[in-house]
Design brief:
mainly alpha, CstA_N, globular, transmembrane helix, 0% strand, single chain, Amino acid/polyamine transporter I
């Protein structure tokens, strides 16, 4: 139990201390500099919104069920997962989210593919454009079929009925002004996400459940190795590339650059706290990791486990909150995934979005493709999401490192986690079932070698900045 509270204190302290330092590395913002929300205000995507609203929307955008499902799956390795959630959030996830948010804000709300292209080169821009659109639509599809199936079980309506209802909602959320639908619904659901975590955490200790102390031993029932599988499995609870696709949505709505710390780094820390609570529930509610593994089988996955824990700890209220969370959270990830896909295509093809007809020309085919994919088995493709998710995080961190280097900031705050995630991503795809399934004796050294190569390629490009061959430093922006 002491380990849990120490990790909680580190997360909170990390927001103020390390998060404040990260902000300082990007230079103090200019007070009178207008953000894109004001300079490019269009009443659709660029809309100034209140801080608290932007924070809750950002939290729900990046979180969804990620810090719940990922943390519960990570708890299969035992309380060692507390360490990755805590230090991953402070030194990797928070940095990643701040980078994606502030770079987007400083580049007129640009999508992540354009940012990677600017700082890592035109080849990466082309790769990231297609990669981002495919990934975002895939996320949208996965988080359409799941809620539709759950709604079918608890209502008399058919699966296809709910599928159509959800697609209609996603269609509206994709092209309507950001403050009309997302801006009004998300704060409520964001509050529900926080309330659910606080309720679980409070009752966990009130009911006297034993939360074990951190032990650097592998407690996974099947003996699955911690490295690198756990680091990929936890995903959103520590660091997630998907967050970088969502940050531009709110980068176009913040009123002051000084809000980037609390909105982007702060939302990630909040997500880390939620993940820590659910990881504690995972290692304690069923007695041990073997019991947790049996619950995953008995309740057919993490969704059923969440429902069982909430109802067991909070009774009827917990059941209601769990149902809202398990349905609303994936829906909130899906609709902003489709919206982000529109942003990516807009930046890619420079399509004006001021008129309703211009937005519909993108929203219709995006949702149509998503609707078609709900009719096919995307399970195989979805298996690669965890890997592509963390690979995207790696690329965003390298982009941030290059930005900081070009602008005379401390690039090491991004270089170190970028190098680490390079090793994680490469090693995972070499040993995973959906990868090459190589032995660890081969995968581990190759993963380290890949990280070293990535590190060297970064410095090779950095030398071009020194020689004046790359002009990627910030330009003065008029207020």
């Amino acid at each position: 139990m002491i380990s849990f509270f120490v990790c909680l204190a580190i997360l909170i302290g990390g927001y103020f201390i390390y998060g404040g330092y990260v902000e300082s590395c990007f230079r103090p913002p200019i007070d009178d500099r207008k953000t894109p929300a004001y300079r490019l205000e269009d009443g659709v995507d660029y809309v100034p919104m209140e801080n608290w609203r932007v924070f809750l929307i950002q939290l729900l955008n990046i979180a969804g069920l990620g810090p719940i499902f990922g943390a519960l799956a990570g708890a299969m390795w035992g309380p060692a997962v507390f360490l990755w959630i805590t230090f991953g959030t402070v030194f990797a996830g928070g940095v990643h989210d701040f980078i994606s948010g502030v770079l987007s804000e400083r580049n007129d709300g640009a999508s992540i593919s354009e940012l990677c292209g600017k700082y890592l080169g035109p080849t990466m821009r082309h790769i990231m454009r297609g990669f981002s659109v495919v990934l975002l639509i895939l996320v949208g599809v996965a988080f359409t079929t799941g809620p539709a199936g759950l709604l079918t079980k608890i209502t008399p309506m058919s699966y296809n009925f709910w599928l159509v209802v959800l697609l209609i909602y996603y269609f509206c959320a994709t092209f309507l002004p950001v403050d009309k639908l997302i801006g009004k619904l998300y704060p409520f659901f964001g509050f529900c996400l926080i309330f659910m975590a606080v309720g679980v955490g409070t009752m966990l200790f009130a009911e006297g459940y034993h939360v074990p102390e951190i032990a650097l031993t592998n407690m996974h029932p099947k003996g699955t190795p911690i490295w690198p599988i756990m680091f990929i499995t936890v995903a959103c609870g520590a660091i997630s590339g998907f967050h970088s696709t969502q940050s531009p949505i709110m980068a176009r709505c913040i009123k002051s650059e000084r809000d980037c710390h609390k909105i982007f780094y702060g939302a990630m820390v909040c997500e880390g706290i939620i993940a820590l609570i659910w990881a504690a529930a995972g290692v304690s509610f069923y007695g041990n990791t073997a019991g947790l593994g049996e619950a995953f089988v008995k309740y057919h996955g993490a969704g059923g486990v969440v429902y069982d824990i909430c109802s067991g700890l909070m009774g009827y209220l917990g059941t209601v909150i769990a149902m809202i969370g398990v349905i609303a959270c994936p829906v909130s990830s899906a609709d902003t995934a489709f919206r982000s896909a529109r942003y990516t295509l807009v930046d890619w093809f420079k399509i004006d979005q001021h008129t309703l007809s211009s937005r519909l020309r993108l929203a219709v085919p995006i949702i149509a493709v998503g609707g078609i994919l709900t009719q096919v088995d995307v399970t195989i493709l979805w298996r690669y999401f965890s890997w592509t998710n963390q690979t995207l995080a790696m690329l965003v961190l390298w982009s941030g490192a290059m930005y900081l280097y070009a602008n005379k900031g401390n690039a090491w705050i991004a270089i170190i986690p970028a190098t680490f995630m390079s090793a994680v991503s490469c090693t995972y795809i070499l040993v995973a079932k959906e990868g090459l399934q190589l032995s660890t004796s081969v995968a581990y050294p190759v993963g380290v070698a890949f990280a070293i190569v990535a590190f060297c390629l970064f410095w090779k490009r950095a030398k071009k900045v020194d020689r004046g061959e790359l002009d990627i430093a910030d330009k003065p922006v008029q207020g």
